[in-house]
């Protein structure tokens, strides 16, 4: 084993010289990257402040608190958290929030020549793509990224990421209508229920009402179809929230980077989903092995 002239901590197990197998990655080997340097490169804090975080026990690597300033990590494989919030160590990943205006289609190249999303991505060096879609008549929050794994998790309805919409609809919406939305509505492609629904106070007149709807379904034009089914067709529709990311005061056509907190919350969801997927796969393998052993013993 090579040495960087530093003495390993007393609780670090030094391999016996006779061992023929070397660990895949040694956290104190010089080929690793110092943890405080990785944190600074990821934009968490300056290197000096990152060192303070480490000493204070606010940093975890693969779920374990790290306090040693000499600790080196493998940025491509290790998972790092600061204050229990995951950190994206891959600095090539970009995450952008767009308030998509009405009249823009959710694609990077529209074959019919309509206004598309390229006008909002051409200023970035990375090749960004949209997470999910909003129809041309709907405005609001779209996430643009080059992180394919996170995009897949966010867009797939089976992962249950909630989206919140505000709809201006025709007619006066009643409490019974709101109850119907949350109980479930029979549509041509099955029953669908909103996770949450409420009538915005003071916004209902004889001609129109404002309804806030939260759901995890990703079916095509689902909000418009649900509201039309209860007799209140949509006049205007905006998506205000996607998971933990909120539109805030972002004006139509404007973009902004995700905050570290927003990205950390999205990564938390992604890692939890990954754990669940792994647990399900392991359970399926265990069942398959048990079945195979049972067959071979007969």
UniProtKB/TrEMBL annotation:
GO terms for molecular function: RNA binding; rRNA pseudouridine synthase activity. Pfam families: PseudoU_synth_2 (PF00849), S4 (PF01479). Residues 1-28 are annotated as: Disordered. Its EC number is 5.4.99.-. InterPro entries: PsdUridine_s_RsuA/RluB/E/F_cat, PsdUridine_synth_cat_dom_sf, PsdUridine_synth_RsuA/RluA, PsdUridine_synth_RsuA/RluB/E/F, PsdUridine_synth_RsuA/RluB_CS, RsuA_PseudoU_synthase, S4_RNA-bd, S4_RNA-bd_sf. Residues 269-296 form a coiled coil. It comes from the Bacteria. Residues 19-28 have a biased composition (Basic and acidic residues). Gene3D superfamilies: Alpha-L RNA-binding motif (3.30.70.1560), Pseudouridine synthase I, catalytic domain, N-terminal subdomain (3.30.70.580), RNA-binding S4 domain (3.10.290.10). PROSITE patterns: PSI_RSU, S4. It catalyses: a uridine in RNA = a pseudouridine in RNA. It is an enzyme of class 5 (isomerase). Residues 33-97 form the RNA-binding S4 domain. Belongs to the pseudouridine synthase RsuA family. NCBIfam families: pseudouridine synthase. This is Pseudouridine synthase.
């Amino acid at each position: 084993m090579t040495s960087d002239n530093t003495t390993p901590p007393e609780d670090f197990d030094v391999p016996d010289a006779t061992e023929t197998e070397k660990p895949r990655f040694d956290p104190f080997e010089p080929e690793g990257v110092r943890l405080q340097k990785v944190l600074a490169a990821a934009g968490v804090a300056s290197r000096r402040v990152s060192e303070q975080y480490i000493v204070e026990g606010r940093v975890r690597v693969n779920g374990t608190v790290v306090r040693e300033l000499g600790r080196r990590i493998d940025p491509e494989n290790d998972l790092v958290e600061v204050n229990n919030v995951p950190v994206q160590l891959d600095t090539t990943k970009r995450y952008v929030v767009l308030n998509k205006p009405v009249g823009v289609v959710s694609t990077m190249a529209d074959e019919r020549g309509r206004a598309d999303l390229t006008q909002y991505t051409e200023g970035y060096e990375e090749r960004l793509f949209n997470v999910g879609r909003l129809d041309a008549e709907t405005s609001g929050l779209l996430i643009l990224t080059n992180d394919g794994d996170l995009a897949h998790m966010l867009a797939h309805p089976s992962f249950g990421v909630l989206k919140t919409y505000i709809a201006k609809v025709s007619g006066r919406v009643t409490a019974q209508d709101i109850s119907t939305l949350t109980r479930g509505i029979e549509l041509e492609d099955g029953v669908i229920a909103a996770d949450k629904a409420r009538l915005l106070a003071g916004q209902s007149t004889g001609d129109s009402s404002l309804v806030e709807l939260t759901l995890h379904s990703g079916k095509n034009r689902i909000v418009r179809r649900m509201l039309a089914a209860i007799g209140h067709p949509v006049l205007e529709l905006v998506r205000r929230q996607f998971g933990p990311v909120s539109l805030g005061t972002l004006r139509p056509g404007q973009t902004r980077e995700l905050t570290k907190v927003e990205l950390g919350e999205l990564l938390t969801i992604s890692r939890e989903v990954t754990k669940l997927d792994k647990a399900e796969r392991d359970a399926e393998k265990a069942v398959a092995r048990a079945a195979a052993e049972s067959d071979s013993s007969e």
